[in-house]
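[Q] Does anyone have a clean C-alpha cell version of this?
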Amino acid sequence: MTEHDTDITAQPDGPYIVRDLPLVRRRSVVTEHGEPITTETTAHLDTRAVYALCRCGQSANKPFCDGAHARVGFDGTETAPTTSYDERATTYEGTRLVVRDDRSICVHAGFCGNSVTSVWNEMDGSRTDDSIVRAQVINMVERCPSGALTYRLEADGDDIEPDLRPAVVVIADGPLHVTGRVTMQRADGTMLETRNRVTLCRCGASNNKPLCDGTHRDIDFRDDGATATP
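[A] Here you go.
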C-alpha cells in the first residue's frame, strides 16, 4: 500500500497529510467537578481535498501545518507499538459484559471514570449483575477517544463499536481524534492498525508518536487557531 492509498500519511519529521476527510473542531464538556462527559462540535473547518495538519505543535496556523517543523527541527521519531490491539489488551469479564483495555494507547482523556466510580471499579466482582451498571460502563467505554477501551457482550463475541463517520476531529488544546476506521501510514512506512477510534499527537511531545499519550496537558499545549486556513 502506498501513501496515496491511505487516508492519512505522516511525513518524516513533518505534518500529517490528510486526503478527503472532513475536519471538525470539538471541545470537551465537563461537569461542575471538571469531569469530562462528552465533546461538543464548535466548528466545521473548510479544507482542500488534500491538506496538511501540524504534527510538531509549533505552527502559527493550527491545526494546519505552516512549515514550522523544519524551522524548529522537529523529531517525529515514532515509538508507538506495532503489535495489534488484540495482542496487547487486558480482558475484564463481568456479567453479560467483557471489557478490554490497552494501557499503551491510553491518552488519559478521563471519560472512563468520575468522582464516584470508574470502568475498572464497576468490572470488579459482581457489580455488572446490575443492568444499570452495565449501561454505565458501556457509555464510558464508547466515549474513550483512543479506543484503548472496548467492549463485547460475550468473551468470544465481536467488539461493539459506536457508529462513527470517517473524520478528523481537532480537540481544543488536545490531540486529533480520528474516527471511522481511517487508514494511516506512519512516517516509517508501516501501517498503523486501522481501528474505529484513534488519537494522534499534534503537540509534538508525545512519547508514543504518532499516537497521543496525554503529554499535551503536561506541557500546557494551547491551540488558538480558530481562524486558521488550509
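[Q] Thanks! Anything notable?
[A] The CA atoms of residues 94 and 163 lie 24 Å apart.
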